[in-house]
Amino acid sequence: MSSANDEDDIPKLSAATLALLGDFYSEREENKQQFEDLKAQNEDERLQTPLSMTLFTEDWNASQFWYSDETAVLLAEQLLRDSTKETRIAVVSAPSVFIQLKNILSVRPVIQHPQISLFEFDERFRIFKEFVRYDFQSPITLPGNFKGAFDRILCDPPFLSADCQTKAALTVRWLSRAGADEAQIIVCTGERMGDLIHKLYRGVKTTSFRPKHWQDRLSNDFRCYANFEGEVWRWTVQVEHHRMPGQAGDLRIEAAR
Length: 257
Fold this sequence. Notes:
By secondary structure, the protein is of the alpha/beta class. About 30% of the residues lie in helices and about 15% in strands. It is built from 6 helices and 9 strands; from the N terminus they run H-H-H-E-H-E-E-E-H-E-H-E-E-E-E.
């Protein structure tokens, strides 16, 4: 039998703490139900409500920083430009662009939908039938039917390291359709990776478009690289001026072509 002293030793939570715990569990249950609703909604090509990244909390330890809606929509529109039902689109490690692809396609006749695939490590996105589990550490450990199958590919390597960028480029090369009409490639990554990107991807150049992240949470300068120009971006050129007296280094001026 416990004594009164034993009961006094049991920690007691304050009313405020209990209220916070209640809110936490309530929010968790709400998110769980929203995921179930989202899974059911995904079975229908015509979404009842627009999809949002707010259900998918960023994991900064996994280098997850979602694009702003404006950036994600712009990139999705570039992937869809002049697409047909025969077009195959791959989104590699950029789920916020995939979400906007789904939103845009939901208002198009199903017969006009291109085939899209999301190559992603985060298992939360498995609720979408287009999900293909992808780990950049095993860049071509993917279903064989995807090799050389895609007309348009967008890739945002998760880490700003030469190892990650090189392995992601190997994935893109493996997925890309070969031939006279080669795949359109978009790579979004840190500006300091630019020289490496130019070496890893044939024909890919720096564009005038600068991707933005949600609430500007990423401090690294980001750039968009592509092997094609369009209405929303042009390739940029760098004009180097010789060092002037008193200058510490060369002056570089960047401008759209």
